[in-house]
Amino acid sequence: MITIKEDIQETHTFSLLVDNEAGVLARVIGLFSGRGYNIESLTVAEVDKDSHTSRITIVSKGSPKTIDQIKRHLERLVPVHKVTDLTIEGPSVEREMALIKVLYTNENKEEILRLVEIYRAKIVDTTDKSFVFELTGAMDKINSFIDLLRPLGLNDISRTGLAAIARGSKN
Amino acid sequence: MTKMTGAEVIVKALNEQGVDHIFGYPGGAVLPLYDELFKSNKSPAHVLVRHEQGAVHAAEGYARSSGKPGVVLVTSGPGATNAVTGLTDALMDSIPLVCISGQVPSHLIGTDAFQECDTIGITRPCTKHNWLVKRPEDLAKTIHLAFLVATTGRPGPVLIDIPKDVQFADAEYCSISEVEHSSYKPKVKPEISEIEQAVELMSKAKKPVFYTGGGVINSGPEASHLLREFVNLTGFPITSTLMGLGAFPANNDQWLGMLGMHGTYEANMTMHDSDLIINIGARFDDRVTGRLDAFSPNSKKIHVDIDPSSINKTIDVDVSVIGDCAHVLENMLILWRSKGYKSDNSKWWDQINKWRDIKSLNYVKSEKTIKPQYAIERLYELTKDKDTFISTEVGQHQMWAAQHYHFNEPNRWMTSGGLGTMGYGLPAAIGIQVAFPKSTVIDIAGEASILMNMQELSTAVQHKLPVKIFILNNQYMGMVRQWQELLHGGRYSHSYTDSLPDFVKLAEAYGAHGVRAQSPKELDGKIKEMLDTDLPVIFDCVVDKDENCYPMIPSGAGHNEMLLNDEGISIEVGDEGKVLI
Fold this sequence. Notes:
The complex is a heterodimer. By secondary structure, chain A is α+β, with helices and mostly antiparallel strands. In chain A, 29% of the residues lie in helices and 40% in strands.
């Protein structure tokens, strides 16, 4: 019997500063798919128009050896200026935003709104049948909010993926 | 500012980069550029190949032998996709190449136009970097940047995709000196603290060994020179990967031969029992390490590499030194001298000499059939005093060449190491001959590999490149057959080639010269005939069909579990070994 071994997995958040040029995202995600690395979450947007640089935040899971390789391979890409493993080099602030649609009934409306208050979500759209909530926070918080809404008419979710930045004065 | 077209800018930039030869094949999307080459009065000169894969391998042979980047020119669509194998080969073996591909005009990109393909998407994972140039004003800058990226840091292939309308458009020129890159700055000079740690470990080692690779050769002749000096000064034994052969002279007493799957017994045993491995410009490839948990279990490891991602990729090391081999070796030498270190490894050498006495490269000689090892030995003896370059295809013949042809200088040995591309050797030989028109260039081949890019013989004849194709013809895909013997109960599933061409007649059909040797007695005379011919030659060397390549570390085994001959072939390879390639 051939068994495929799996090592201990760690979750790390990488922050990349890259040239905002055509194909740069494809290069980064191609590296992950080509070498068999995981992407749990990915966000990307331009952060400096003048210098044409974008910030890519990637959450990945892998063995400590794989995590180390991911950083080294990312640093090797030509348009990549800087790679920070925020999980190692932390501490950092990590946030995600989610838009969550719930179809309510008169029976559960109150319960839903109570949860919204507890989690400090915002109501950004409402009809006679539905709410859309906006919630910003750590991934865990969003996960647990969604889990609580699941039996209460959860209908659709859109999440941005994680944005992260180092705490304090260093970048 | 005189007005130039995009195509003119490209040719001017190539000239400023010092490009004297381009390997290519024309087509619709590169016609403006070919028109410019027509007008450029062979500056650069163009070598017309017969298939784009051949163009890339030829450029690899050119680059590996001359130390200059190889340049390839192909058209869009099939031109670019045919280049993919060669680009991947160059990426695996860190060969500096600049490939220019034509693309359909900008406004047709994305419309499934004739001969359109997503060249940038397809070649992204098989190049160090690639660019689609959509604006004519970016052309010159991109070409200069491409040469910078291809040749610096860990070298590799790059590709520039240029739409046809950009080649026609008005474009401005900018020279090399105006180009710099904000994020691409590879580190070549090592940290002194890393050097200090490494040299201190070396001074204390009782059973050290140098394990060197293609990085020493890529670093340039100075690195090989420094390596010789340092190895001599320390008195340590040295082995090398397939890619690193020639950096250290094979005729030196400290040379153990190649290591790895088909390396010598002494090289692999030395690695296994060592207490300090000094890896210079090699990457702990799986052909070298064998089973990872059995790889040199009691040694500390120093790893010198220009690519930080090579560190701890497969083998965890104790000291890593990031930098160019020549810089690192120079620093190590200075430090070793200034500290006045002396090493005494006489006991270690006693042990190594016992392993040497096994004579692991020995084979059973025959007077009736030509043994493939014997053929290589004779080829070596008859060419060693000439100015000779060797390329190979991939398989048993490649390993026999690595074992029995001995290299004393760098850049003389061109082989497809990482990717293992059958069909590499003939076009590579053509590229070498372009760089060194007066030298003897021999492609040591197998009859299966050579048929993969046989068409390039036509290139050799057209350009008067008298390459010699030395085929060890055993009618089998020998390495496949050997593995089927070892792992699959001798069931030779599709590893025998029936209906082979008559290679002598084939040579004649191409306008080359054909020679056949069938017995050991006639071998020397026929080799001399090959060497004395001014034409390209196919040498059909009919060898023992059943010979296997030894020594061998079977897959899933450690360095100390080598097979030395067919007697071990009944050993059980475990399930884990079978999965490996």
